[in-house]
Design a protein that fits this description.
Elements lengths: L1 E8 L12 E7 L2 H4 L2 E5 L11 H8 L21 E7 L1
Antiparallel strand pairs: 1-2, 1-4, 2-3
Amino acid sequence: MKIMRVLGLAMTGQMFDEDKPQWLKSYDVEAHGGRGDAVLTGDRDQALRFEGFPEAMTAWRTVSKKKPKRADGKPNRPLTGFHVEIEDA
């Protein structure tokens, strides 16, 4: 099993405090009109679990069906707004 540690924000380059790690707890790619919604947790045991690395990366790259394209015409993949690291659960 794998979990997704969220390291920071991709757009600004802001990284989260290493002393207070955050993991993906839940995610809805279609929330907020296709802009997505991610809930993070500081409790590693509450992290969303994936079968393996490919499944975690598939989730990270999921394109919204409600809003498949960004304003610049590129695929809308809301979770890619975060820098992440895939770890063993």
